[in-house]
Amino acid sequence: MKKILLxxxxxxxxxxxxxxxxxxxxxxxxxxxxxxxxxxxxxKSNYVDxxxxxxxxxxxxGDVLKTFWTTTDLVTVYKNNxxxxxxxxxxxxxxxxxxxxxxxxxxGDHFITDGLKEGDALNLIYPRATWEYTNQDGTWExxxxxxxxxxxxxxxxxxxxxANNKVYGTTALFGAAQQAIARFTLLDTNNTAFNTxxxxxxxxxxxxxxxxxxxxxxxxxxxxxxxxxxxxxxxFYVAIRNDNEAADQYTLTAKSSDGKVYSYTRSNVTLTKGTxxxxxxxxxxxxxxxxxxxxxIDGGEEVWD
Length: 305
Fold this sequence. Notes:
Helix content is 3%, strand content 46%.
């Protein structure tokens, strides 16, 4: 059974967070004078699986999602309402085998801490400091590394100057994921795999988000998401953020190996942020006429045919 890394959960956990800053002076007058190490506890939230009784994850074994941290995960830290980047954090261990896989210790060196004071907010974003949904390749591994966005805000409540500038903060909880994850399994009318090297996704509401600012406001949206795998496949994992919160009409379009264009359109589809949904889609020649049947569930997948 193939394993694919993902991250997803239905119940939010809360953990107290402690940040430690070890102040030192800089030899470079062009840089701020205070640098420190920052350590804190990080808690991931889960995606809600539409059919798997509320599991959340960024690791998939079969159809079950498992949420955990790896040491290559990246958390970027800002202050002043996302205006100033002050450093980066990484998990100290892989939590895939842990009894509490959504929780980890995050650490980072060379944090810029000039002017940090009690009451300041620290803004955290995972998994990278560029919030966009373009250039996806349809794999779960790439979503986990680049498109599984979640944010957390921490307030500094006390700085103990007598204890090596130890900083106490509120809970660092990465809340609900900022996008839905959809798995599309493409089939032809003979119920066999429809392999393609490019999948295009559009909606009638034309609100698919391409890029966001750190506060979650779309800065580029509308048009199509184009997914390009490294090799022809019929299974696509796609991170989708749709600013049209209501049910929307989705159209999938792809070319077959002989260059013919196939598509499928489904009405009343709701892809809510923080959910993971699985679809089995029967692709049809673009010029063919067909009657859209009511969707039904088959083996945990919603069938579109």
